[in-house]
């Protein structure tokens, strides 16, 4: 996967963690992502029912894994206390382009364990045959 990451996206430990999580999600590196998920993780893909718990989280990622990101662009990562946000876009293997924003809440400001994720995903460009 090709990475386009703005230079200011890794100048703090929490930013680096969010960057690595975003890369793991885009490449569907489920074992790596699961290392940072609280056992009661809550993931809301806006417009869909929340995904609760590590088992459902892993299952949801597995269902999505047939169309991996070919290029991941991270425009910015913001962190403050126990919260973080990232936004960018993904060019998928099938040619589709999605814009995304993910909002993270960690168990505490010092924790690396993710308690909640809210994801906004927008179709920017549909693949053409």
TrEMBL record:
Q: What protein name is recorded for this chain?
A: Nuclear transport factor 2 family protein
The species this protein belongs to is Flavobacterium capsici
Q: Which SUPFAM superfamilies match?
A: NTF2-like
InterPro entries, alphabetized: NTF2-like_dom_sf, SnoaL-like
Instruction: Using the record's annotation, list all stretches that form the SnoaL-like domain.
Output: 23-106
């Amino acid at each position: 996967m090709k990475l386009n990451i703005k230079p200011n996206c890794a100048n703090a430990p929490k930013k680096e963690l969010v960057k690595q999580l975003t890369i793991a999600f885009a490449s569907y590196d489920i074992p790596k992502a699961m290392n940072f998920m609280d056992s009661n993780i809550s993931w809301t893909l806006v417009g869909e029912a929340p995904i609760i718990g590590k088992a459902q989280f892993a299952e949801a990622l597995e269902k999505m894994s047939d169309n991996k990101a070919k290029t991941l662009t991270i425009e910015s990562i913001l962190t403050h206390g126990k919260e973080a946000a990232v936004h960018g876009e993904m060019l998928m293997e099938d040619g589709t382009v999605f814009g995304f924003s993910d909002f993270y809440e960690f168990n505490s400001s010092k924790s690396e364990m993710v308690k909640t994720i809210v994801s906004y995903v927008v179709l920017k460009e549909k693949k053409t045959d």
